[in-house]
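Quick one:
INPUT:
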């Protein structure tokens, strides 16, 4: 059993460059995509990613907020799946807060690019895997 889930899982998440996000398509099937790690994290509860407003994933989250994110540490063969909901945010203040130098590569019109949005994931529960054992946890 984890002594300090916030620290154990938080450290795993913060060391990963890639996150996997899952959405649900119109037929009820999961869709998984590799993304850059979250731009911002508030404990284990909230995570912010960037994506294209026009993306398939943003459309799926608008239709069905159920989501999952997964972080994997290949060096120690451990990972964490977190279940919750994903919101598509287009609020100017949120977009400005999450914006980083170099984002022009993906959003050529800058922070006001209409094809730039923020995905906010809010966690409910998760499952941590390490040392050939799994452990469920609530958030």
């Amino acid at each position: 059993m984890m002594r300090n889930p916030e620290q154990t899982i938080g450290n795993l998440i913060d060391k990963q460059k890639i996150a996997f996000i899952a959405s649900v398509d119109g037929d009820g099937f999961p869709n998984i995509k590799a993304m850059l790690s979250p731009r911002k994290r508030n404990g284990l509860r909230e995570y912010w990613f960037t994506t294209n407003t026009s993306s398939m994933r943003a459309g799926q989250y608008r239709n069905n907020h159920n989501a999952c994110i997964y972080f994997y540490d290949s060096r120690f063969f451990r990972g964490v799946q977190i279940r919750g909901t994903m919101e598509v945010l287009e609020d100017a203040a949120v977009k400005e807060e999450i914006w980083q130098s170099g984002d022009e590569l993906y959003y050529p019109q800058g922070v006001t690019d209409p094809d730039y949005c923020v995905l906010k994931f809010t966690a409910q529960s998760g499952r941590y895997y390490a040392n050939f054992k799994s452990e469920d946890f609530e958030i």
